[in-house]
């Protein structure tokens, strides 16, 4: 019998939450089969099995958080589905061990959703959990736990979760339980008010009473975003500045090249690769912006590892284009498109989000014409590419012309540089953008 432990999904990750068990006791387990989904402060990942055999005991219920290295479940080694040999023993996985391989992130239907408030009812007594040696669990004071997908389905279909009998571990309501209830005729889903005895139909939480609210549980991703932004605001004295660039030649170039580029390279050509390339060239001239705090030490980096902010359905993610300065426009376009696609699909790997030295944020993609981004700590600067707007502009010869104008905004950590360097960076970036033709 082999023991599967909580892996360490990232350098600073110390714990993880079991989002869902993908295998149940008695299920056959092949090598690299996904056993469960784990959410940490950095990513949500499927845990592949390092053993082949039959799923044994689940030691950590869905929804509980345990530390790295703690036992999660057992696998009875042998042919999948076959009874284990009486003398068959396997060496347990090392604490925090990870099998390698890509860490798949749950699809959109598993994304966190607002909690559904349910009527208070006496919860059935839980079966006493068998103590597991060496397993330290976070206190769980909740009467019942509902996974994000269960809560979302219940809210969408006005389903009162407290009326369902859970088939999961410890009587928990699973997705299959909710889908089975949804499949019933609406009349069959009419519930009884436990206090008045009158039949009622379950309503979404926000409709149950005037002034009611929905308590939204923060996912590990959302908590990490909140913590990092709070830390950035508290620790870094941030300044902000902006320049206006005439990108008419760049817009015309992109319009001329986009059809050929899509046919030849297989990805859409946007302004972002051009902007990122200009940022990389400018960072070589102003290396003090391509930096990170490591404790009390400020480090200027040679490699241009550019974070690209992606506003995904699951929260803000900043995947990193490593060695972006070595890539062509086509290379940048492909790498950015790949990272953005995997960010939306929740299939980023740990190495995709670590080690950024400077961040680019395309806030213009959702119509912003000026913004004040928060520095992506421990980096020291972030630049935004705002929406391109056509408007009349007075030129140097006093002529009025309609031009494609774009604001470029920079937030920076004043501990790492002064306005001279920050302003110089923006001025140089503006010149490069306006020179692209």
C-alpha Rg (nearest Å) = 26 Å
Shape: elongated
Element-by-element helix/strand order: EEEEEEEEHHEEHEHHEEEEEEHHEEEEH
Mean pLDDT across residues:
79
Name the features.
437 residues; alpha+beta; OB fold (Dihydrolipoamide Acetyltransferase, E2P); Chloramphenicol Acetyltransferase; 3 domains; 8 helices
Describe the structure in your own words.
There is one protein chain. With 437 residues, the protein is an alpha+beta fold. It has 3 domains: 2-104, RNA polymerase II/Efflux pump adaptor protein, barrel-sandwich hybrid domain (OB fold (Dihydrolipoamide Acetyltransferase, E2P)); 107-129 and 143-217, no CATH class; 221-435, Chloramphenicol Acetyltransferase (2-Layer Sandwich), CATH 3.30.559.10. It has helices at residues 148-156, 175-183, 220-235, 248-265, 271-285, 329-344, 350-353, 419-435; strands at residues 2-5, 15-21, 28-29, 34-39, 44-48, 53-58, 65-67, 71-77, 191-192, 199-200, 238-246, 291-294, 297-300, 306-308, 310-312, 315-317, 320-321, 358-361, 381-385, 389-394, 400-413. The strands form 6 sheets. Strands 11, 14, 17, 18, 19, 20 and 21 form a 7-stranded mixed β-sheet that branches. Strands 1-8-6-3 form a 4-stranded antiparallel β-sheet, with no helix packed on it. A 4-stranded antiparallel β-sheet has the order 5-4-2-7, with no helix packed on it. A hairpin with a 2-residue loop joins strand 12 (291-294) and strand 13 (297-300). Helix 5 (271-285) packs across helix 8.
């Amino acid at each position: 019998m082999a023991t599967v432990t909580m892996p360490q999904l990232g350098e600073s990750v110390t714990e993880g939450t079991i989002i869902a068990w993908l295998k149940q006791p008695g299920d056959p387990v092949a090598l690299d089969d996904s056993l469960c989904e784990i959410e940490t402060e950095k990513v949500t990942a499927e845990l592949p099995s390092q053993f082949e055999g039959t799923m044994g005991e689940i030691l950590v219920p869905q929804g509980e958080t345990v530390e790295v290295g703690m036992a999660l479940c057992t696998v009875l080694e042998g042919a999948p589905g076959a009874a284990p040999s009486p003398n068959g023993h396997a060496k347990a996985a090392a604490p925090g061990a990870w099998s390698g391989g890509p860490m798949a992130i749950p699809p959109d239907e598993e994304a966190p959703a607002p909690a559904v408030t349910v009527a208070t009812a006496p919860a059935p007594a839980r079966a006493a959990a068998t103590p597991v040696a060496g397993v330290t669990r976070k206190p769980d004071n909740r009467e019942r736990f509902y996974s994000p997908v269960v809560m979302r389905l219940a809210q969408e279909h006005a389903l009162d979760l407290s009326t369902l009998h859970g088939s999961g571990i410890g009587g928990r309501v699973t997705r299959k339980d909710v889908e089975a209830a949804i499949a019933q005729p609406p009349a069959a889903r009419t519930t009884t008010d436990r206090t008045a005895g009158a039949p009622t139909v379950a309503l979404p939480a926000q409709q149950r009473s005037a002034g009611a609210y929905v308590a939204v549980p923060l996912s590990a991703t959302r908590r990490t975003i909140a913590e990092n932004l709070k830390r950035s605001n508290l620790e870094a004295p941030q300044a902000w500045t902006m320049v206006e660039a005439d990108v008419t030649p760049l817009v015309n170039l992109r319009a001329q090249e986009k059809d050929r580029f899509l046919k030849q390279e297989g990805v859409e050509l946007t302004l972002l690769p051009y902007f990122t390339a200009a940022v990389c060239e400018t960072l070589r001239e102003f290396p003090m912006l391509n930096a990170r705090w490591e404790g009390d030490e400020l480090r200027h980096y040679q490699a241009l590892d550019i974070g690209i902010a992606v506003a995904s359905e699951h929260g803000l993610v900043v995947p990193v284009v490593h060695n972006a300065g070595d890539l062509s426009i086509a290379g940048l376009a492909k790498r950015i498109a790949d990272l953005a696609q995997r960010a939306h699909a929740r299939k980023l790997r740990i190495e995709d989000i670590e080690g950024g030295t400077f961040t680019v944020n395309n806030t213009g993609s959702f119509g912003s014409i000026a913004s004040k981004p928060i520095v992506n700590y421990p980096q020291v600067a972030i630049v935004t590419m705002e929406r391109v707007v056509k408007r009349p502009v007075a030129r140097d010869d006093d002529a009025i012309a309609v031009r494609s104008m774009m604001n470029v905004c920079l937030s920076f950590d004043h501990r790492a540089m002064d306005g001279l360097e920050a302003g110089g960076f923006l001025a140089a970036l503006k010149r490069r953008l306006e020179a692209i033709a």
